[in-house]
Structure formats: structure tokens, C-alpha cells
Amino acid sequence: MIEKIRIVLCETSHPGNIGAVARAMKNMGLKKLVLVNPEKFPCAVATERAAGADDILQQAEVVTSLHEAVKDCELIFGTSARMREIPWPKVTPKQCAEKVLKHSNSDKVAIVFGTERSGLTNEELSLCNFHLYIPANPQYEALNLSQAVQIICYEIYQHYVEKEQQQDTLLGDAPVPASLDDVMGVFEHLEQALRAVDFIDPKPTRILMLRLKRLLLKARLDMEDVNILRGVCKAIIYKVSLSETT
Amino acid sequence: MIEKIRIVLCETSHPGNIGAVARAMKNMGLKKLVLVNPEKFPCAVATERAAGADDILQQAEVVTSLHEAVKDCELIFGTSARMREIPWPKVTPKQCAEKVLKHSNSDKVAIVFGTERSGLTNEELSLCNFHLYIPANPQYEALNLSQAVQIICYEIYQHYVEKEQQQDTLLGDAPVPASLDDVMGVFEHLEQALRAVDFIDPKPTRILMLRLKRLLLKARLDMEDVNILRGVCKAIIYKVSLSETT
User: Fold this and answer.
1) Are residues B114 and B225 in the same domain?
2) Among the four residues A26, A104, B108, B161, which has the most C-beta atoms within 10 Å?
3) Domain that holds residue A195
4) Does A245 lie at the interface with B, CB-CB under 8 angstroms?
5) For the tRNA/rRNA methyltransferase SpoU type domain, which residue ranges apply (chains A, B) (predicted)?
């Protein structure tokens, strides 16, 4: 089950790190690697460092943007060492593993890692439901990329094993989670509605829109929520247009 | 306190691994590295891989036997992937971290790692109080040396931080969470706005209002969110009233 969880590496510079990540993933039972604009791939150095995990590299998907890598995902974690201007919901590796294991479709879960030098951009982080933070020595916080991946995969595997051992089947007609694209659709619709009622006029501040996006993402919308919110936006826009034409 | 815990590497073949171990240790606040008969040390490759953790390498102690490395220790863990002929007390990384943090003198604690190829010998393992086992994919269990060290140091640091946090009060400018009453205030305001745009007309279904309430509650609103949402409701109601009076 956990093998379908997506590990996404953005703009990795060193192919050796890609190989080490493949090995770290396979050690902990994960298989799905997605590379966004890797500097060098495929590459002999990556294959060598992957050791027996070469199959992960062979099946790796290469894409050109983070959005492309995660657009169908329902639960997205972005790793972040530094504090950002907008406080986003933050989780530790352990909390991340708990959330991942609770999520019904592991093939809609992504954990995203930035470049070796500077991590994920604020733009990339704003696509994520949660920011994932590995508590570390404040005097020397920057982990090697493959080590960070190892820790996350380790926590996921440990929780998986624990859950397997408990073996109890919790069933129920769970709601259908919304994908990132569904949520972004709501976000755009909302922007139109807010414009119609002059809430954002003439143009919204970047911070306000970022806060609204965060609010939608942290709510972990399901498809019922999406339909209700779109209905609300539609009603607002319709009402305003009606009164403005008459 | 945890900085004095000893990481002991036995007969390491690849100097790159020694460097990566130094970095992994420093990331998690550990400082004391002991090398038993390293194949190549010091070595430029090690220094390069250590990145900013070169100080750990410079202070590393080199000895000629495991016994020499741990003879003054009171609590010794030996990592072991395979089952051995003699059943020894076994611990996971988490259990290891708990034992380490409970031990009074951290400078008498050692965690020992074997060679890259075959791990610790039975002879070496017999010097240890506990065998330390990292649960991993049964089809591909062998972790890279530095990754194994990273996981152990990570668990120790997390337990250390947890213990620290229990002692002092949790501070930080976290967002102010909204109380249930704040959320219900938003809910009522939203109901008025939805009525204004005829989204609920003449009266809402119970299920719809329940879903909206659930949506607000699951978003775990903070006071910034409350203010934004109330601003949105106000703008909707105002805009509609304006167009209806003119």
C-alpha cells in the first residue's frame, strides 16, 4: 500500500542524491519517484548510488513542473527547513506519517523536496497542504537531501508496520477527497465572487489571496465541499450580475 | 547533553560514508565520532561529504579495536540487520532513543555500526548490551551506513527535543486559534450572506447547513481566518443591499 506514495524531487542538482534517494525509498518499501527538471538524469552516478534500487530509477517519472507532478494529488507535503512569511500548517515527520497512513488513497499522496541549495520556493510551498519540518540542530539544520528522504520514508514505514500489526479494519463510506486541481478551481471561482462583491477591488493583495488559499488547503476539502463552495460562488456572482443589469 | 553520545564506525570502507555520517550526526546535535580501523582516514572525500560538519571529522578519534572504542561505556548498542545465531535483547531505533535519554551519563553511551558489506561480526555484537535493528523492507533491507546513522541520530534528537519541551513552556507566535463561539459567529454570518444571494431560499436544508458547519470546523480556523471570512460575508451582504435599494 505505501509503495504508491509519491516522492517528488524538484530541480535536484546532484545525480548521486537521486540515486541515494531511490535506495532510501526502496529500503522503506516506497517505489514511486517523480523528478521535476533534474539537472542530470538518467546518469551513471545515480545508478551507482542507487545500488540495488535501480528499478526505482528506471520507473521514475520526469516532469517539467511541480504542478504537473502533483495535480491529481489529494494530500501534499512540502519539506521546509526555514520559517516562511505565511505560517502554514506544519507537521513533523511522525505527524506526516500518521496523516499519510490515515489517507485512503496512497497513490494520491505526495511528499515534495526542494533543491539541495535552497529547498522549495514559496510558490512551490503554496501548493502543499502541509509543510513538513524535520526538527534538527538549530546550529546546523540543513540535512542532505537523501537523508531527509530517508527519515520521512523511515517514519512512514514504521507507522505502516505498526498499523499492519494492529490489523483492525476501520471501514465506512469515507468522503471522496478533492485533488489540488479541484481546490484550485474553487479558489479561482472564489476570486471571481470576491471581485463581484468588491471584496477585492481593484486587485487583491498577494497576502490576502495566499491566506485564502491556505484556508482552502488546510480544510482538506472533499468533493461535497467543492460542490457546495462552487454553488455559493455561483450564487454570489449571479445575484450581483442580476441586480447590476436591472 | 546528547552531544557526548559516541557513534562508533567499525572498519568503514568508503571515506565518503564517514563524511556523510559526520554531517548526519551534526544535523542531530551529536559530536563524538570514533573510527575503528577506517580504510582511509583522513581523506578529502570524507571532508567534502561532511560539508559543514568538518569539525566532527577533525575531532574524531581513531582506534584499533572495538573494545578500545567502548571499554569505558555503560550502555552499548550494536546495529544488526540480520538475525544472529544467539538471540540478544533487540531494540528498534525508537526504543534505543528512549534508553539513551534515560541513561544518566551520555558520555558513557555508544552506538556501534559495522562495515558496509557485512555489518558487525558476532564477536563485536557480543560486546553490546542491545542489538539495534531498523525495521525495513524485507526484500531490500540493507541501508547505506550514513542513512542508518541518520535514522538513529534523528530518533535520539526527537526524543531529546520532546523531553526538553516537556520541561519548558511552549512559546512562539503561533496563530491564535478560533474558539467554537468564534466559528459559530462566522457560521451565522455566512448564513445571512447565503440568504442574501438566494443560495438558501426560502430556508436551507438541514444537511447543507450541517456540511457548511463541518467545513468550517474541519478547517481549524484561526482568528485571521475568522476576520477574513467575516469581511467576505459583510461585503456580500453590503453589495446585495446596495443594489436592491437603488
Assistant:
1) no
2) A26
3) 180-245
4) no
5) 5-154
Nearest by CB to residue A244, choosing from B158, B235, B243, is: B243
B118 plus B236 within the same structural domain: no
Which chain B residue has the Cα nearest residue A92?
Answer: B158
Residue B144 has pLDDT above 70, yes or no: yes
Same domain for B241 and B193? yes
ipTM of the complex: 0.78
SS3 of chain A: helix, strand, coil, percent, to 5: 50, 15, 35
Residue A56 has pLDDT above 90, yes or no: yes
Mutate to test the interface with A, among B147, B205, B209, B237 (most CBs of A within 10 A): B147
Q: Smallest Cβ distance to B197: which of A147, A219, A236? A: A236
* A103 & A222 share domain: no
Helical H runs in A51-179?
Answer: 54-58, 66-70, 93-102, 122-125, 145-166
Query: How many Å apart are CA A75 and CA A5, to the nearest integer?
Result: 10
Give which of A2, A129, A32, A138 is closest to A78, Cα–Cα.
A129
User: ω into residue B177 within 30 of 0, thus cis?
Assistant: no
Tally C-beta pairs within 8 A across A and B: 150
Statement to judge: residues A81 and A190 lie in one domain? no
Q: Which three cell numbers stand for residue A1?
A: 500500500
Do the domain assignments include residue A109?
A: yes
What does the pLDDT read at residue B85?
57
Q: How far apart are the first and last CA of chain A?
A: 57
If you average pLDDT over residues B82-99, what whole number do you get? 82
Alpha-carbon gap, residue B151 to A24, rounded angstroms: 11
| SS3 call for B150 | helix
Q: Is A162 on the interface with B (CB under 8 A)?
A: no
Write down the pLDDT at residue A168: 46
Cβ–Cβ contact B208 with A under 8 A: yes
CB B170 within 8 A of CB B208: no
CATH number, position B197:
1.10.8.590
